[in-house]
Amino acid sequence: MPQLVDVQNMCRWINHHGVEKLIAGIQSYIEEDFVRWESFDKIPRVASHTPIGVIELMPTSDSNEYAFKYVNGHPSNPARGYQTVTAFGVLADVDNGYPTFQAEMTLLTALRTAATSAMAAKYLARKDSEIMAMIGAGSQSEFQALGFRAALGIDRVRIFDIDPDAMEKFRRNIEPLGIEVYLAASVEDAVEGADIITTCTADEAQNTILDYSLVRPGVHLNGVGGDCPGKTELDARILDDATVFVEFPPQTRIEGEIQNKDDDFEVVELWKVIAGKHKGRASDDEITLFDSVGFAIEDFSALRYLRDSVAGTEFQEFIDLVADPDDPKDLFSLTTNVLSPL
Amino acid sequence: MPQLVDVQNMCRWINHHGVEKLIAGIQSYIEEDFVRWESFDKIPRVASHTPIGVIELMPTSDSNEYAFKYVNGHPSNPARGYQTVTAFGVLADVDNGYPTFQAEMTLLTALRTAATSAMAAKYLARKDSEIMAMIGAGSQSEFQALGFRAALGIDRVRIFDIDPDAMEKFRRNIEPLGIEVYLAASVEDAVEGADIITTCTADEAQNTILDYSLVRPGVHLNGVGGDCPGKTELDARILDDATVFVEFPPQTRIEGEIQNKDDDFEVVELWKVIAGKHKGRASDDEITLFDSVGFAIEDFSALRYLRDSVAGTEFQEFIDLVADPDDPKDLFSLTTNVLSPL
């Protein structure tokens, strides 16, 4: 019977281990999987768009395991009391096609997105980076901040959001954990002196959250919120000056900041940097941009990490999801005998 | 919190209502949804193939609800004690993207496949049809037989399978329900005098389960097992003589019997017959073929029917799958307070 980690157990699991440790653990799994990138079956995610949002399925597999995530994106949700993004995911055994593991992934996605951003920055940000600017104080913001401390030791964050309450919420959550938080008066104020700039906003429009004039040589840009057709955050001129690193080009060209560029716009695949096949940051003056949209392999890694971590613990339950009659050709027998599958 | 119908409750639900009544109920929902076919977001299913099987995701949506099914197909599974096909599915609210309902679908898929076959035959088989030949006595066979009795009153079945135990299993399950079963010695013997021929075998190869010479004028062919690239059941010459009805042409051209034909091979979309936009059977001599592969809208219909049927009953549980903090921008709060979401 497949294992299950529901929301309650996900909360307990995170509370038990702590966000920072789990992001670091998931990051190590993502790095392992990015190194063997070529062994995965990869497609752009399958999106169903409506005027107010998108629902997506993100499958991938290697020769042993299959994973997919269900995830929505509805920018108008918080104003109505809902999460912008909710998600759940499943692992399955490629050998017999049976699902083996199901988990909530609203929280797990926040952990894996932070882990991926932090992994990219480990290879792309200047080694002497000390200060991160964050534009956007929504659901992902605390996870991003803790991910960057775990991977790079960043303990100073300058944050800006158009919603002052969201900034206060960020400070309330993060300051007690020992990170110095500066509430900025504007984007300009936030990026002042920052070595790393993370943009993570939810508005579904071609915005210019970050203006060209604010990007100085040597900065690393972590562009998280430009992740959907028609949803970008950066002044397109920034892309011309930066070296742009992406996850899976066929998906990022549809969804990322580079959707505003031609199809042959030059990018570097992040996995090649992780695998040592392509250099990361070339100089202290280079502007690097991780044009993050989120790719299925990261969810595959996160689900594997969670599964391995909760195996045999109190954080795991079971879900009776696979009909399994004694005679595999006699599925019908289940309709006449009410058997307990346990 | 999303509703859940797990295997145990699916068995209890079917046992409570009976297979035949549920197939008829699901058929009525499929007919409703086929009539409004054009209002659905449709794509061919998303398949991940390996040497021993396939794992697929089948999404579709209208303007209110989104559905997807996870389903595998592993022909070598029964010999190893596993089901060839297992499945589960989810409904979600298009408005906010939240999942609302999850169910096991191994059994539900058997019900909906039979409902779809029976629906097609209601429009395509001769009205005086009395006898069905069935080639293949696997997991789907009893459901097909009961579906045809529910929709057309067929109560005589001539069955053949290369596995005598599977045929005996079929007789053991079906005869007590009042259907006359003849165990045939060969495919030729099975189709003798049959008005309807159902082929439903699991072997993943371009087989000729049914030879050209065995198909007489006026017969309706219900081709269920040719449903995957490289997996067909019919002598390709049969398709030249028959009028071929399909679900979603872009998917059937990849997966159905017509994969052995050119891309412009003429087919009729079944929904147009149901909606009264195209005639069904034209004469008593016509050979009609429903080249069934299974399409996402049928799962959408089956999930809706199940959801409506179990609402407020003992057959429904809940699954804690959507993280929902009080402040939608404060997802992080769930990591520090272990709240019961109930």
From TrEMBL, chains A, B:
* Entry EC number(s): 4.3.1.12
The record's listing under InterPro entries reads: NAD(P)-bd_dom_sf, ODC_Mu_crystall, ODC_N
Coiled-coil stretches are none
Keyword annotations: Lyase
GO MF term (any one): ornithine cyclodeaminase activity
SUPFAM superfamilies attached to this UniProt entry: NAD(P)-binding Rossmann-fold domains (SSF51735)
Class of enzymatic activity (EC top level)? lyase
Q: Protein name, please?
A: Ornithine cyclodeaminase
